[in-house]
């Protein structure tokens, strides 16, 4: 049967994490609201403040909970992860403090699955320990959602690969010790079979940060999502991760978990919005009355709670499905939360902004940053429309029936089919 209770030991960990994030991690958000600080592991705040916090998380057994125990994680299932991620979603720095910061969290899994022992020694160990950052380079300037437009190539030359091409909006590229990069290795087959994954150390000759592009809230030239060029980048044969042509299979595994985890954290962001609304309404007076007594404000607060509750249940259900059936078996459910995430987040932020008046749109509240994030979540990891198509494809898969002339709900047809059931009853 369905049971919404949380076992006591897990509830205790969640309560600890909640207090810890509010008390010790949130001050980082207030002081350094800059993604670059999160990924630049040479920034003094890492050694001086973050590492001791990370140690406390490790001591509590909550470090990298998404990873299997062989990798130093806790092997949390997705449902348990969802409950923790709700808490981490309230803070920009919390995922880094808890060892589950994207894109490192997914790159760890690729490196663990496909890296050589030497690559793992050099990159996996420090990445697992949160001492380096990494990047995932797939999108290209001329096409993100349509991979058939990708032109970055990897060509064998003796016992080396030579990479040429450009990648766009590559999170944390300026701070990455290595890239997991997708390149075309066989241009003669469809891209889903002709693209491969490579491990590219960040100090390899030929890598150029063309521009440090970034989100609208980041200063020009200082963004954390750079435009990167790879010119005659030479890599050893073992830089190829997995089989040649397996790039998309590897990417899909990685992206599925990432999409779900973003949705889990969005639940936390919605909770934060609701808290802000309630606090504002309860403490603001207009025309001699508390905003909390205003019927329209009450209606908005109720709407916010309903949307949060619906979305939370959808995310938990997708997480449960992934636990039961793996990423492939939860494809529709994950696409469902991916589609729902930006809309529900945007509505929550806009309501909260509006209720705060000028303060809501000012640079003295976190809401503008949250609004940009909500829009970005509709684009990053594939735009909404692509995931809507995935859902529709799954629903339509078995619906075609060449024998069907009238809809199954067609009343005359249904009456004809049902008539024999009643023929023996007198009076009908
Ligand atoms: C915050 C953020 C971080 C990112 N980090 C990374 C990263 O680390 N590594 C990386 O490789 N990429 C990254 N990206 C890039 C991201 O993966 C791409 O933005 C995404 O795949 C969409 O590609 P695009 O931007 O080229 O948009 P386009 O492909 O040009 O799509 C633009 C719009 O066109 C429409 N559209 C596109 N395709 C379809 C379709 N099939 N059906 C209907 N409508 C469609 C949609 O409205 C879509 O929003 C990041 C993006 C963001 C916002």
Question: Could you characterize the architecture of this molecule?
Answer:
The protein is built from 15 helices and ten strands. The chain has 428 residues and is α+β, with helices and mostly antiparallel strands. The protein folds into three domains: 8-101, Butyryl-Coa Dehydrogenase, subunit A, domain 1; 133-243, Butyryl-CoA Dehydrogenase, subunit A, domain 2; 249-396, Up-down Bundle (Butyryl-CoA Dehydrogenase, subunit A, domain 3), CATH 1.20.140. The strands form three sheets. It has a four-stranded mixed beta sheet with strand order 1-4-5-8. Strands 2-3-7-6 form a four-stranded antiparallel beta sheet, with no helix packed on it. A two-stranded antiparallel sheet has the order 9-10. A hairpin with a 2-residue loop joins strand 2 and strand 3. Helix 4 crosses helix 9 (247-283) and helix 10 packs antiparallel against helix 11 (331-355). The longest helix has 37 residues, at 247-283. It is globular, with a radius of gyration of 25 Å. The model has no long low-confidence stretch (mean pLDDT 95). The structure holds flavin-adenine dinucleotide. Residues 103, 136-139, 143-146, 169-171, 225, 376, 379-383, 385-386 line the site of flavin-adenine dinucleotide.
């Amino acid at each position: 049967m369905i049971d919404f209770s949380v076992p006591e030991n897990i509830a205790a960990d969640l309560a600890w994490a909640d207090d810890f994030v509010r008390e010790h991690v949130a001050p980082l958000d207030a002081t350094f609201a800059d993604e670059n600080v999160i990924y630049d592991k040479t920034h003094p705040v890492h050694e001086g403040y973050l590492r001791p916090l990370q140690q406390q998380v490790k001591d509590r057994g909550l470090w990298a909970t998404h990873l299997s125990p062989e990798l130093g994680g806790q092997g949390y299932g997705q449902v348990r992860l969802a409950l923790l991620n709700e808490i981490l979603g309230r803070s920009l720095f919390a995922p880094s403090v808890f060892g589950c910061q994207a894109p490192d969290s997914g790159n760890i899994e690729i490196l663990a699955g496909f890296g050589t022992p030497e690559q793992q020694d050099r990159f996996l160990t420090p990445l697992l320990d949160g001492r380096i950052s990494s990047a995932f380079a797939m999108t290209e300037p001329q096409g993100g959602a349509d991979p058939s437009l990708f032109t970055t190539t990897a060509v064998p030359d003796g016992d080396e690969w030579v990479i040429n091409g450009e990648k766009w909006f590559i999170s944390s590229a300026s701070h990455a010790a290595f890239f997991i990069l997708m390149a075309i290795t066989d241009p003669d087959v469809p891209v889903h079979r002709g693209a491969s994954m490579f491990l590219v150390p960040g100090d390899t000759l030929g890598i150029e940060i063309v521009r440090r592009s970034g989100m609208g809230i980041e200063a020009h030239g200082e963004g954390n999502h750079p435009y990167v060029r790879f010119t005659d980048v030479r890599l050893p044969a073992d830089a190829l991760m997995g089989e040649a042509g397996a790039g998309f299979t590897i990417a899909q595994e990685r992206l599925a978990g990432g999409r779900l985890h973003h949705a889990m954290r969005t639940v936390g962001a919605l909770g934060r919005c609701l808290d802000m609304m309630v606090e504002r309404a309860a403490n603001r007076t207009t025309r001699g009355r508390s905003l909390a007594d205003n019927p329209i404000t009450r209606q908005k607060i109720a709407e916010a709670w309903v949307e949060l509750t619906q979305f939370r249940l959808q995310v938990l259900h997708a997480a449960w499905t992934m636990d039961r059936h793996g990423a492939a078996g939860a494809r529709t459910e994950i696409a469902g939360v991916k589609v729902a995430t930006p809309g529900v987040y945007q509505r929550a932020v806009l309501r909260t902004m509006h209720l705060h008046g000028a303060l809501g749109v000012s640079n003295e509240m976190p809401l503008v940053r949250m609004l940009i994030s909500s829009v970005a979540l509709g684009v990053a990891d594939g735009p909404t429309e692509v995931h809507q198509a995935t859902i529709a494809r799954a629903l339509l898969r078995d619906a075609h029936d060449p024998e069907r002339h009238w809809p199954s709900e067609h009343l005359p047809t249904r009456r004809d089919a049902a008539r024999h059931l009643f023929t023996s009853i007198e009076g009908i």
